Amino acid sequence: MPCLDIATNVNIDGVDIDSFFSVVTSTVAAIMGKPQNFVMVVLRGSVPIHFGGNKEPAALAEIISLDAVDREVKRKLIAEIGSILQDKLCVPRTRFLLKVHKSASTPNHTRSKL
């Protein structure tokens, strides 16, 4: 289950969040080859971020996956998520950073049941 956590200094009040989540979820699912219902997306706006010596619109995203993410998948994620952030939140692609983490699974890992 990939989890994408996005923090941005952009105020997201008035942003069509449903559309944003829909586009990001389908994009991550397609690139990582996972069903959409396995993708989690977190969006936090108005986070104090100082990047490149200024406070202009910027974003930091982290993706955590149980599976390893190879170089090509990482390249596609950076390109596509960067485009979405630019289109939906006006964050320039040059002011976006993506960190990729592979989650370590343990033998005692349990999954909560709802």
From TrEMBL:
One of its GO terms (molecular function) is phenylpyruvate tautomerase activity. GO terms for cellular component: extracellular space. Pfam families: MIF. SUPFAM superfamilies: Tautomerase/MIF. Belongs to the MIF family. It comes from the Eukaryota. The lineage of its organism: Eukaryota, Viridiplantae, Streptophyta, Embryophyta, Tracheophyta. This is OLC1v1033596C1.
